[in-house]
């Protein structure tokens, strides 16, 4: 059955995806090509890594899936690859002038790397966000909505990556002040199971090499979301977010030990405790105590309203949470951890998916 146009908000739109060659960017592009949000007029994949651009073109051109014909022709018609860096204000402005909606996924996201190179994280995660906001505020562009991709590490941050992402969120929320043309909002979620640099692909490589599997501390917990779940959150924000909103999915969490045990399965393989890495929390927080009182429910999501009264549209009538939303409070057991990994394609470690 054809979906009503109301539920296809990107039909005929030009969508810019910064960081479009990354794990989330590729997943967003794939789903956009599928047409569930309506068939866009153009999808601009903006990224500074020309090697990833080339590989993405090859990968998308040779899909061996049931919807190959639709996917291939949409790829040929819609995708526009642009090499550029969000740190470059001029490059950002050039692509903003060709877009109706921005999904800002470009980021430095590896926690230890950001600890050792904090200035690089500032330039990409903060200056990059400001370049987008300034480009939209100071120029007459057609962009009517911009969504920034954030992380649970931005909530009460203790590491550089989280700190820079927290400021990115504030930049996007504040951008709504005095700007009636463009709606700025955010999404915030936990560890994407299949993304580059996450613990799951690391465990898969260690298992393939014969072990040991290295875990930080057994009781450490992490929210888990699949790539499709992350894209679902972005699409929910596109459909529903008001200026200054931050969309947060309701997610299960798992202990690092259970993630490792689920992936090891019946293999006889050692686990080695190596301790907490620089900048890591034991438990992640998706919504803080201070944010809980201005958090509403929206289906499968929490929506954090802006702390700025000029943006927040009045007080929340009924708070969805009484306290912080922590990974320590949503822990599932081993079997459910296996189910999450199975949905992400990572339970069979002999042939894990690569992203």
Write the layout of secondary structure elements.
Elements: E1 14-18, H1 23-34, E2 42-47, H2 50-61, H3 68-78, E3 79-83, H4 89-96, E4 101-104, H5 111-116, H6 118-137, E5 145-151, H7 160-174, E6 183-189, E7 191-192, H8 199-208, E8 213-215, E9 221-225, H9 227-240, E10 246-249, E11 253-255, H10 256-264, E12 271-273, E13 285-287, H11 289-292, E14 295-298, E15 301-304, H12 309-312, E16 325-326, H13 334-343
Helix pairs in contact: 1-9, 4-6, 6-7, 8-10, 10-13
Largest sheet: 9 strands, mixed
SSE order: EHEHHEHEHHEHEEHEEHEEHEEHEEHEH
- Average pLDDT figure: 90
Kindly estimate the percentage of residues that lie in beta strands according to DSSP: 15-25%
Strand order of the largest sheet: 3-2-1-4-5-6-10-15-14
- Secondary-structure-based class equals alpha/beta
Give the end-to-end Cα distance, rounded to a whole number of Å.
32 Å
Percent of residues in helices? 25-40%
Pick out the low-confidence regions. Answer: 1-5, 349-355
Overall strand count: 16
* CATH C-level name of the domain at 10-190 and 227-250 and 288-321: Alpha Beta
Gross geometry: globular
Number of helices: 13
Gyration radius (Cα, Å) is 20 Å
CATH-defined architecture of the domain at 10-190 and 227-250 and 288-321: 3-Layer(aba) Sandwich
CATH topology annotation of the domain at 10-190 and 227-250 and 288-321:
Rossmann fold
The CATH superfamily of the domain at 10-190 and 227-250 and 288-321 bears the name NAD(P)-binding Rossmann-like Domain
């Amino acid at each position: 059955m054809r979906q009503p146009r109301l539920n296809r908000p990107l039909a005929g739109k030009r969508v810019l995806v910064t960081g479009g060659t990354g794990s989330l960017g590729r997943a967003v592009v794939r789903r956009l090509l599928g047409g569930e949000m309506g068939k866009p007029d153009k999808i601009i994949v903006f990224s500074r890594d020309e090697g990833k651009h080339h590989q993405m073109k090859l990968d998308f051109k040779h899909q061996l899936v049931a919807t190959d014909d639709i996917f291939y022709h949409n790829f040929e018609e819609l995708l526009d690859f642009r090499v550029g860096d969000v740190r470059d204000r001029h490059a950002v402005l050039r692509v903003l002038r060709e877009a109706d909606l921005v999904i800002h996924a470009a980021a430095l996201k590896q926690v230890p790397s950001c600890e050792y190179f904090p200035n690089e994280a500032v330039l990409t995660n903060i200056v990059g966000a400001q370049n987008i906001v300034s480009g939209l505020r100071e120029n007459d562009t057609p962009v009517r909505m911009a969504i920034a991709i954030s992380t649970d590490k931005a909530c009460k941050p203790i590491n550089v990556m989280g700190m820079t992402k927290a400021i990115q969120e504030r930049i996007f929320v504040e951008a709504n002040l005095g700007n009636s043309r463009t709606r700025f909002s955010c999404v915030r979620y936990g560890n994407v199971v299949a993304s580059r640099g996450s613990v799951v692909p690391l465990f898969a490589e260690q298992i393939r090499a014969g072990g040991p599997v290295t875990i930080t501390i057994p009781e450490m917990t992490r929210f888990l979301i699949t790539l499709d779940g992350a894209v679902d959150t972005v699409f929910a924000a596109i459909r529903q977010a008001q200026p200054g909103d931050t969309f947060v999915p309701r997610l299960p969490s798992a202990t690092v030990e259970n993630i490792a045990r689920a992936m090891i399965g019946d293999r006889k393989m050692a686990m080695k405790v190596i301790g907490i890495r620089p900048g890591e929390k034991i438990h992640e927080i998706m919504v803080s105590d201070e944010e809980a009182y201005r958090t509403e429910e929206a289906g499968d999501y929490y929506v954090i309203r802006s702390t700025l009264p000029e943006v927040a549209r009045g007080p929340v009538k009924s708070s969805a949470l009484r306290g912080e939303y922590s990974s320590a409070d949503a822990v599932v057991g081993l079997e459910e951890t296996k189910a999450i990994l199975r949905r992400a394609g990572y339970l069979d470690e002999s042939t894990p998916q690569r992203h």
